Amino acid sequence: MPLDFVGYDPISARQTRGRMAYEFGHSAEACVARHYAAQGYDLAQARWRGRGGEIDLIFHDGDGFIFVEVKASKTLSAAAAHLGPKQIARICASAEDYIGQQPKGLLTDMRIDVALVDGQGHVEILENALM
C-alpha cells in the first residue's frame, strides 16, 4: 500500500520552493545594488536582457560600465559554485551586446563583477572576475 501524505501536493511544494528562490534572488540583487550605490555607482539597468541572456545589474561608472552577476546561496562558496562556463559565456556575450549599443561601442570601459551573497545577506564582490 503506497504512503499518501494527506494534503501534500508535490506541484504546490515545488512552486513554493521556486517562489522562495525567486524572492531570495531579488533580495540578493537589492542587497548588491545597495552595496554598489553606497560606493557611488549609479544603477543603469536591472535584469537587462541581451542576445546572450540576462545581466542582473549594470552600473554606470563615469564613462564606463560595471556588469554584475549576482549569485546567492546558503554560503558564499555555494553561491560561487552556481556559476558555470556556459553562463559565463552568456554573460560576456550580453555585456558585449550592451556595450556595442553605447556611443563608443567596444571601446567603452567595462568590467564584469561577480557578487556572492550568502543566506545571512553577507556580500562578497569579485571585481573583474570574468574578464
Proportion of residues in helical segments: 25-40%
Largest sheet: 5 strands, mixed
Rg measurement, Å: 18 Å
Estimate the global geometry from the Cα principal axes: globular
Biggest sheet strand line-up: 1-2-3-4-5
Give start-end ranges of low-pLDDT stretches. Answer: none
Number of DSSP strands?
Answer: 5
Estimate the mean pLDDT confidence.
Answer: 89
- Please report which band the strand proportion falls in: under 5%, 5-15%, 15-25%, 25-35%, 35-45% or over 45%: 25-35%
Structural class: alpha+beta
Cα separation of the termini:
57 Å
Question: Explain this structure to me?
Answer:
This protein is α+β, with helices and mostly antiparallel strands and 131 residues long. The chain is 39% helix and 28% strand. The protein has helices at 10-38, 76-81, 85-100, and strands at residues 42-49, 54-61, 64-72, 110-117, 123-126. It has a five-stranded mixed β-sheet, sandwiched between helices. Strand 4 and strand 5 (123-126) form a beta hairpin. The longest helix has 29 residues, at 10-38. It is globular, with a radius of gyration of 18 Å. It starts with 9 loop residues before the first helix and ends in a 5-residue tail after the last strand. The mean pLDDT is 89.
Comma- or semicolon-separated keywords:
alpha+beta; 5-stranded mixed sheet; 131 residues
List the helices and strands and how they pair.
Elements: H1 10-38, E1 42-49, E2 54-61, E3 64-72, H2 76-81, H3 85-100, E4 110-117, E5 123-126
Parallel strand pairs: 3-4
Antiparallel strand pairs: 1-2, 2-3, 4-5
